[in-house]
Amino acid sequence: MLVGVDGCRAGWLAITLDDDTWRADLFSTIGDLWNALHDASLILLDMPIGLPSEDTPIRECDYVARKLLSPFRQSSVFPPPTRAAIKAETYPQACAINQRLTGSRFTVQTWNIVPKIREIDTLLLESVAARSRIRESHPEVAFWVLAGGRPMWYPKRKKIGQAERLACLRARFAPTDAIFERIKIDFPRREVAPDDIIDALALVVMAAGEGPLLSIPVMPEFDERGLPMEMVYRQLVFRN
User: Fold this and answer.
1) What is residue 86's predicted lDDT score, i.e. its pLDDT?
2) In the structure, what pLDDT confidence band is assigned to residue 110 with cuts at 50, 70 and 90?
3) Measured between alpha carbons, how far is 7 from 148 in angstroms, rounded to an integer?
4) Domain range list for the chain
5) pLDDT in the model for residue 238
6) CA-wise closest residue to 113 among 140, 89, 86
7) How many Å from the N-terminal Cα to the C-terminal Cα in the chain?
8) What does 190-203 look like in DSSP terms, one character per residue?
9) Mean pLDDT for the chain overall
């Protein structure tokens, strides 16, 4: 069983592939997701896992991924906050902590996903089993692979960008359109946006690829608590 996960307004969207069957589930917390899907062999998650610190203020995986996705989609890879910053109660406090430790503040858009970063960080620090199955990846890296080593041209929230990404998925995974349309019916847009579905689908399709699981960078760094600072991907994605 393979799973692709993307954060959404209602929590976490998980698309599961198990042999010839698929399903989509919406979980309010990452703990609920793990409790339901802990038997999965691989869960690819679009959320920072290993976090920067004073000793490692810049994650190499972010730097390398931004280079791969240049010149169009590099902005989709953002530097996550430090573990100390995600414990702050307010955005100004978090920025002050981050600036003291790394020399940089972070955007309010990043602050808006801090609760999700905190959720996954807490789970992985508490669960050895979760650490062995939940790996950080990135949908735009998945599409870079699907497109033969080039980034997407258009932003994912524009209809033209969604069509571009669905075409990439469709070429590798025949049920793409049926799954996309079914999930749009099952979950209201106020809970799950179309780009959330596309991102989760890209991750699970890549998880089901034929090639070995590779890492950006090739030799991942580890953060101060031992979590890998990496983005994983498969170089070869199956055709269906």
Assistant:
1) 98
2) very high
3) 26
4) 2-234
5) 66
6) 86
7) 17
8) TTS-HHHHHHHHHH
9) 96
Residues 6+ apart with CB under 8 A from 221: 50, 56, 59, 60, 61, 228, 229, 230
Calpha distance 29→16 (Å, rounded): 17
pLDDT tier at 240, thresholds 50, 70, 90: low
Q: How far is CA 220 from CA 112, 129, 164, 231, in A?
A: 27, 19, 31, 9
Task: Report which of 198, 152, 206 is spatially closest to residue 8, judged by C-alpha positions.
Answer: 198
Question: At how many degrees (to 10) do helices 139-146 and 60-69 cross?
Answer: 40
Task: Give the residues across from 212 on adjacent strands.
Answer: none
Here the tokens at position 189 are 């847009």
Whether residue 39 has pLDDT greater than 70? yes
**Which pTM value belongs to this model?**
0.96
Torsion of CA 202, 41, 15, 112, to 10 degrees: -80
